Structure prediction request, 420 residues.
Amino acid sequence: MAKTSLLRPLAVAAAGAVLVATGALPAAAAGQDTTDAPAPDLAGVRAALQASTTAGAPGAFAVIRDHGGADRTRSVSVGLADLDGTPMNSSWRFRVGSNSKMFTAVLVMQLAQEGRIDLDRPLREYLPEGTLPEAWTMTGRQVLEHRAGVYDHTNDLLEQAGEETTSAFEARIRTKVYDPRELVAMSVGHGVQYTPGSRYSYSNTDYVLMGLAIEHLTGRPYPEVLDDRIIRPLGLRRTSFVVPTQEIRGAHVTGYLTNDDRSRPLLDSTEQTGSWVWAAGAVISTAEDLDRFLGALMAGSSGGLVSDASLQQMTAALPTPTAKIAYGLGLRRISLSCGDVYGHGGIVQGFNSQSFTTPDGRRSVVVFANASNNGSVTQGLMNTLEPAFCGKQPAVAPRTAFAPASVPVDSLPVVEDTRI
Prediction:
């Protein structure tokens, strides 16, 4: 196989902001600007988190980590980790949903560096025979970018657009064990949705396909490859991929779904197989481990995950239909008032998170709420990013007859992966 070209890369218990020392991660990547980031606006972060709990999440947290000359962690937690009354704990484990796509993308880039896959050739060449029809010419790069025209199989498993129902969760998600090839077959049955490369459309099936390619090229199960190439080398001791095991071992936050019958309490959705999203969304981790992963990734060659050239490809994000949002190879770019940040979001039954970092890796922000099928909860989390990265903004001038008030800079759109 030819080497790829590496030219593109309820009762509420609130906890206060906590400032602690941390020994986490290498400083900035070589050659990057090391200017100190603005002090985070913790009051603004707290207000955004409380908006998520007001919208229906039992609890929420934000963890802001700075690396470099003065490593430190600031954490803000509000509300509950479970409906038994346990205060939210920002160090506990949770399902990271589509943040998993960053892990899968890193594995693919490593295989590209080794010459095992050419991202600009049809992906079907690197999959088990018959996985994709011969006529499907989309490349690995187009699949990673969500520009391949691959139908999202999760649409067939959920009962409504945007936010899954608890009836669908119990019938087809919680205990059902899917083979990844079964998920791809669901998608293939719908045919190619548009000419590959012509536009952007988020599809979880894209990353199921990449997981199958990883297995085919290495001859090993995806969880083993993930463990050998990312989890163990980085010392991510609280990160795991345990499909189809349903439980989350160790201290963890409880996830909840809003019940279809609004007269009933929130549904505990913590235990689930994760098989319906597999390599696209089934990783379990913590804010600390996500920070360590993001720091190593953004350090490029010195971080030990991908080369500088691969990182350039991953961060070469293309616009999406959503304002301020672009997408690269497994990385989303969000444009804030103080600059761009890179990472991903993840929403999977009962668990809702956003994980982002500055380009130099000097500040990471991981935000979380334990409710998923609720767009207003997600909006609250999105609105933590501006105050967490950029600090307190100047007051907006009052509205006048001649000068309408501006749209607040901390208002970010909810990203398109609102179900997973």
In short: Residues 204-218 form the longest helix (15 residues). Confidence is low (pLDDT under 50) at residues 1-34, 399-409. The chain has one domain: 15-390.
